[in-house]
Write a structure and sequence with these properties.
Blueprint (H helix, E strand, L loop, with lengths): L4 E9 L2 E6 L2 E7 L1 H10 L5 E5 L11 H10 L4 E4 L5 H10 L3 E4 L1 H5 L3 H9 L4 E9 L5 E5 L4 E2 L4 H11 L3 E6 L11 H10 L4 E4 L5 H11 L3 E4 L1 H4 E2 L4 E2 L6 H11 L1
Parallel strand pairs: 1-4, 1-12, 4-5, 5-6, 6-7, 7-10, 10-11, 11-12
Antiparallel strand pairs: 1-2, 2-3, 7-8, 8-9, 13-14
């Protein structure tokens, strides 16, 4: 039986694990391998790792680092950052990555998604949409760490991506990144109602109540978070954490 997933998301910057606030103000929070080991022990449902330097610097994935992460990881691993070809996606899967995520390349190369889906399987082809709300209230997809506007509306674009082979859509709220005040549930609901592939939502989670609210509204969905799993308390002390299975089941049950 399918059920929601609670997914830690790790950002890699200068080879270290960082957390950001609205895609700026990066704070070093530790070593990625150590974080993976802790999430192994805590039996996380899945793990997303995003190298936020790769695309911005115009380089391909750091295969050596990814191989170390995949070798250590005991849960499904989704990697994104610098992927621009189907051959790169295939190499990542050979290293042990279950899902390959692309972002800006999905816009720059309209035929990339079907090529990746053909190469590694649709279930392994993920598109991350970094979304910002404009002054007028409309949503727009941004790339290059939130610096480049695309003119694309996320729900319509997600429908296009699903039609050509994307196996999952991850929507990431730039406005809510690191704020820890809750997900953009209305946007998540619109996406869930508009496409027939799995979606995950990132940006804004600060408590398990926020996760419950998202699942209550959307049902079977991926609830991804960064700050919630690396910070503790009002002073945001660095402490890797993840809810035990019993606590997750309580959240799922409360969400209905």
């Amino acid at each position: 039986m399918l059920r929601p997933r609670i997914i830690p998301c790790l950002l890699i910057h200068n080879n270290g694990l960082v957390k950001s606030l609205r895609f700026t103000d990066y704070k070093y929070v530790g070593d990625p391998i150590n974080a993976v080991k802790i999430f192994n022990e805590k039996e996380a449902d899945e793990l997303i790792v995003l190298d936020i330097d790769a695309t911005a610097e115009g380089r391909e994935p750091n295969y050596k680092m990814i191989a170390h992460l995949a070798n250590e990881c005991r849960m499904p691993l989704c990697y994104g950052g610098g992927v621009k070809t189907a051959a790169q996606a295939k190499q990542l899967v050979r290293l042990g990555v279950e899902k390959v995520a692309v972002s800006s390349a999905a816009i720059e190369q309209p035929d990339l998604i079907p090529r990746i889906a053909d190469e590694v399987g649709r279930q392994s082809c993920v598109v991350v949409l970094d979304v910002r709300q404009t002054a007028g209230g409309a949503y727009e997809v941004f790339t290059h760490n939130g610096r480049k506007a695309t003119g694309r509306e996320p729900v319509a674009f997600a429908r296009e991506l699903a039609k050509v082979g994307a196996g999952e859509i991850v929507v990431n709220s730039i406005d809510r990144d690191g704020v820890m005040k809750g997900y953009d549930v209305p946007l998540a609901r619109r996406l869930k109602d508009s496409i027939d592939v799995p979606i995950s939502v990132l940006g804004g989670a600060g408590t398990l109540d926020h996760v419950r609210e998202l699942i209550s509204a959307c049902g079977v969905i991926g609830a991804a978070a960064g700050s919630m799993f690396v910070f503790k308390g009002s002073l945001r002390a660095v402490l890797i954490n993840y809810p035990p299975e019993s606590r997750k089941n309580e959240v799922f049950a409360a969400a209905g």
